[in-house]
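thread: overnight batch results

M.L. [08:02]
morning all. the overnight job finished for the chain we discussed friday. pasting input first so we're all looking at the same thing
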Amino acid sequence: MKRIVIAAPHSGSGKTTLTLGIMDALKRRGLGVAPFKVGPDFIDPGYHRLVTGTASVNLDGWMCGLGFVRASFAHHAAGADIAVIEGVMGLFDGIDGVSEAGSTAEIAKALTAPVLLVVDARSQARSAAALVHGFASFDPDVKIAGVIFNNVASANHERILREALAASAPQIALIGCLPKDPELAIPSRHLGLTTAEENPLSEEFLRHLGEVIDRHLDLDAILAISGSTATLPGLSPESGPRTETAGVVQAADRVRIAVARDAAFCFVYEDNLRLLREQGGELCSFSPLVDAALPDGVSGLYLPGGYPELFAEKLAENTALKDGIRGAVEAGMPVYAECGGFIYLTRGVAGAGATHPLVGIFPVETRMLPRRKALGYREVELVGESVIGGRGTHARGHEFHYSEMGEMPGEVERLYRVSKKGIPLGLEGYRYRNCLASYIHLHFGGSPEIADSFVEHCREYRTRSSI
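M.L. [08:03]
and the structure it wrote out:
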């Protein structure tokens, strides 16, 4: 499998735009591209999907473990001509300052994938080559095979960059020098870029990006580098998730699960959905923005994250669906909600002197904040029985939001004992009947029994409902 990691020394270097351009250029050559994203980000994968037509998959060594990462990569890349893996933050940035856990470097090493380093060359000349030299020597097991200089000011600037790299790191290929181009900026907001659902890239944007890539990058060199990889290491039936087993689940054991998927609810790990399918979950997408009812015959509900606060008025107006979800929760249907899905289940989103009423399962209101409320990896231990597992179940996930809720009443049960790098953060994960909601996005890859438990609870609900 040809594979390449696109990384950078720091965020804001232009790696997302360049990743999209390279994916698009490869697709225009007739190649099948398997897109991946390192880390817990949801927004970049949406743009990957928009360009390639294929769901982009998160690879996170800290949340899932490297065995799962390798097996997930092998599963999702199967049948493609090349895998393009976009990094997160700076190449070596991860959970802390002393380990590679959660970093792009960790994934590149785990997949023996060569790295293209995207360097923002603005306000730099020969110093840019010193930066590349430092990154290439920091960890010899990370193979930086090529460099792309971005935001190059002039032909003379490009000449200096080429000379400096050739003199200081001749073993590293210069893939290209891209000029400054404000037309290639993608709008952003507090969680990063705007989502692909809100801001689908126009034909004009993609055409211009394609022209820039064709004119300034050596795509043949990228293909040659991507094909220089070793065999994917450490892959065995025991090394990661089960492969596609949904086909052998008996028809009678399959159970329909509704999953919210629209512009308001677009943050979900693809492997979470895959693991649910493998256990017999028949996933049915629906839109809380426009659908008046849940899909027919469902026995479970998954409400992922997203930006419900941006669509609060429209969500509030859909009273029929809100009533349907409230009735399903009261009937004991298994419901799992995270971050934006959790917000949707509160009394509403307050702002501009008014509150947009939402489902109202949890008796608190949500309000947006001008500054970030929470960011980072989280470890979770269940302290009671739930739809995703029993007492003592451990899971890992990520939390990132600019909202906060009122004080949850004491009678609402807390099921998550949350910590960060061993430091206790308190209790979270709220349950009402069979509805479990939290700000934390759990990745099921680290604890596949979560998917087993949820699907089994949905089967039990179906059986109870049919009596």
